[in-house]
Fold:
Amino acid sequence: MVPDKIVELVIAFHGHLCPGLAIGIRAAELALQEMDSRAGDEELVAVVENDNCSVDAIQFMTGCTFGKGNLIFQDHGKNVYRFYRREDGKAIRIAQKADAAKRKDPAYQTLQDKQHKAGLSDEELERLNFLREERIKKILSMDLKELFTLKEINETPPQHANIYESVECEHCHELTMETRTRRIHGKWLCLPCYAKQERKI
Structure:
């Protein structure tokens, strides 16, 4: 179990507590248990297959961040998290179990769907908030083996983050990483300016 103080710090970092954040907290807990270390710099690398609330917990708890380049996003839309320890090449894959994801009160899903489509009455909103809190409590207290599958994988860790020169876009004159520029009409442009010029062709 993650100490309440850590959960509170993750919530403060993310902005709210929700089932997605709770999943991330538990995935990070499992990763730290298995990898026996938190990233001070780039010793640990995380590859996340979604961009939902869970990733903020991964960043905060494991020390893998976008800014350091040791948090890599792959848009697969799955609650799957891979971790690599550079010092010895250990790699693991953590995936939320399908049956764990389905353990919601059907009323919770109904109210959640209605909230997005038509809105809820005060009474329905109160009920949804209660069910959401119960769902979060369940996720935070479940045995990790019930919540996730875990397996060691034989994969090479992603490369260290590269540092590239910045160059001036010849249209907007803003600095842009050189690998993100494109040449059109004899000028080197940043990607947004390049896209605008392409549309004019």
About this structure: The longest strand covers residues 80-85.
